[in-house]
């Protein structure tokens, strides 16, 4: 594993080493003791000796920080080799044309880079009052399923299986296309973009990895969707 100590740590590592060497020389060599201490109780050597403990503590904490970063990097690379990676989730806003009308849409993409099969169950939406979404279709790789009556019924259940990633193969993905609703009506877009307003959406995706013991997972995505004012 090729690991380099970060620059912000290297800037302090050299001075700390020199300070520790200086403290050791002052505190433990007889010549230095004779110069800085005249056999009094509160001499400079006593103070320096006390400070050396704090310097040693600082050096130990620095070592622990470096080791933690090394272990984190090693775990990340091990997870990559074994395929035990988290899926990735993204949010995009979109616009769909139908019968010369334009509708606002939201799109959620989940990419499964784990070796285990990912089952996507449902979404939960956090949005401003009056703005919400409902699933129009789901697409896993090339297999797309349109939900019936999606313009009238706001459905938040995905129920799709995303295969685990095989070595050398492209990771499977699920794209969830959603209608945007203003109240109970589809959010149409005016031909004048100046009349559009951006509204924040936060969406939580629920699912689980299939294995000997199923592992529940949640993915949080957020973005902006446009509606006409």
Which keywords apply here?
single chain, 4-stranded antiparallel beta sheet, 7-stranded antiparallel beta sheet, 229 residues, alpha+beta, Immunoglobulin-like, 30% helix, 3 helices
Distance between the termini: 55 Å
Write down the Rg.
30 Å
Shape, per Cα inertia axes: elongated
**Proportion of β residues?**
35-45%
Give a structural overview.
The chain is built from three helices and eleven strands. It has 229 residues and is α+β, with helices and mostly antiparallel strands. The chain folds into two domains: 76 residues; 141 residues, Sandwich (Immunoglobulin-like), CATH 2.60.40. A hairpin with a 2-residue loop joins strand 7 and strand 8. Helix 1 crosses helix 2 and helix 1 packs antiparallel against helix 3. The longest helix is centred in the first third of the chain and has 39 residues. The radius of gyration is 30 Å and the shape is elongated. The mean pLDDT is 79.
How would you sum up this structure in a few lines?
The chain has 229 residues and is of the alpha+beta class. The chain has helices at 7-28, 30-36, 44-82; strands spanning 88-98, 101-112, 118-126, 131-140, 143-146, 157-162, 172-182, 185-186, 188-189, 196-209, 215-228. It folds into 2 domains: 7-82; 88-228, Immunoglobulin-like (Sandwich), CATH 2.60.40.
Task: Draw up the topology in text.
Blueprint: H1 7-28, H2 30-36, H3 44-82, E1 88-98, E2 101-112, E3 118-126, E4 131-140, E5 143-146, E6 157-162, E7 172-182, E8 185-186, E9 188-189, E10 196-209, E11 215-228
Helix pairs in contact: 1-2, 1-3
């Amino acid at each position: 594993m090729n690991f380099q100590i970060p620059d912000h740590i290297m800037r302090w590592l050299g001075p700390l080493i020199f300070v520790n060497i200086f403290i050791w020389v002052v505190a433990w060599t007889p010549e230095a003791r004779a110069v800085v201490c005249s056999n009094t109780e509160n001499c400079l050597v006593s103070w320096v000796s006390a400070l050396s403990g704090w310097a040693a503590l600082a050096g130990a904490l620095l070592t622990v920080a470096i080791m933690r970063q090394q272990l984190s990097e090693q775990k990340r690379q091990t997870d990559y080799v074994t395929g035990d990676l988290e899926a990735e989730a993204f949010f995009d806003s979109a616009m769909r044309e139908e019968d010369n009308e334009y509708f606002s849409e939201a799109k959620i993409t989940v990419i499964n880079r784990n070796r285990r099969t990912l089952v996507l169950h449902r979404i939960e939406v956090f949005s401003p009052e009056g703005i919400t979404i409902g699933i129009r279709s789901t697409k896993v790789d090339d297999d797309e399923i349109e939900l019936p009556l999606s313009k009238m019924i706001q459905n938040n259940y995905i129920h799709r299986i995303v295969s685990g990633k095989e070595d050398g193969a492209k990771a499977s993905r699920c794209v969830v296309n959603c209608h945007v609703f203003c109240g109970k009506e589809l959010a149409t877009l005016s031909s004048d973009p100046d009349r559009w307003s951006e509204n924040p959406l936060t969406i939580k995706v629920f699912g689980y990895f299939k294995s000997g013991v199923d592992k529940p997972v949640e993915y949080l995505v957020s973005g902006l969707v446009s509606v006409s004012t």
